[in-house]
Amino acid sequence: MLAALAVVLAVCALGVLAGSSGFGWAAPDIVWRIRVPRVLAGFGAGAALAVSGALMQALTRNALADPYVLGVAGGASVGALAVMLAASAGGIGLGEWGVALGAAVGAGVASALLFGLMWRRLTNHSAGTDASAALLLVGVMIGSGCTAVVSLILSVADEGQLRGMVFWLLGDLNGATHWEIVWAALALTMLLVWPSAREIDWLARGDAWAATLGVAVAKRRRSALLAASIATGAAVAVAGAIGFVGLVVPHVLRRLGIRAAPLLLPASALLGGVFVVAVDAVARTVLAPLQLPVGVLAAAVGVPTFIAMLLGRPAGATRA
Length: 320
Prior knowledge:
Blueprint: H1 2-17, E1 18-19, E2 22-23, H2 28-60, H3 72-90, H4 95-117, H5 119-122, H6 129-156, H7 159-170, H8 180-193, H9 197-204, H10 207-212, H11 217-239, H12 245-255, H13 261-285, H14 294-311
Antiparallel strand pairs: 1-2
Helix pairs in contact: 1-2, 1-13, 2-8, 2-9, 2-11, 2-12, 2-13, 3-4, 3-6, 3-11, 4-6, 4-11, 8-11, 12-13, 12-14
């Protein structure tokens, strides 16, 4: 535990020292008004996405599930961009809180659509692997539909909005000052799921098994989905679309032997936060003074890491 805390503090210190001019201490105003909020926003977003991914993998009983694969992050992007577009058209300054609300609503709608379409299969205890595969396919289709809507929004946005929207979609922490949004969402998510984390483990073993142990399956699934939607919506609103965090982080922790949800959820939050802060520090300094979108580097790290882990798994071992 002390070692994990030391790593978190070291990475956060690295994030505070990283700037567009390279590594080093800056003026107090820059540190406290720009760098520290950016580190807090990045850590919160990474933690929220990793926890959401762990929840999605447990609920679907499939290790390939995450907020992006299942279309939840796509719904959050649609909601956030729609709020941006509407606010600009109406001359209303909603700020990051308004964008966060739109993203949370979009994530919730995508989750409701996904599990509404798949409810019969998911509650059919004999469906087995077919239900999980179908859930992923439906999620991919929902994500594709959300991508089409995002493209439509981008096509009607004016030039003043377009650049900011595109960078936001790539995953960008530049100007992410309202870190309290994602931290509040993360706290609410953990409050909803961590006290009943053992029941989520039972759900991951199958609905019939969980029901035998006295779990209110439908209620627990709804609360976990709501928590994942809140976390994803807030993360997307604050940091944009940063992929692979929710997919790779839980895998890494399971490889390290952390599988029980009471440990996996907080460990996912810590590792997800550390990952995003570290990647953002590199994104700000590797081509300084040019700042790269953090989502681009996250994908550059996440894609080969996930492929290596997937190829190293025994045949047929795709369950969470």
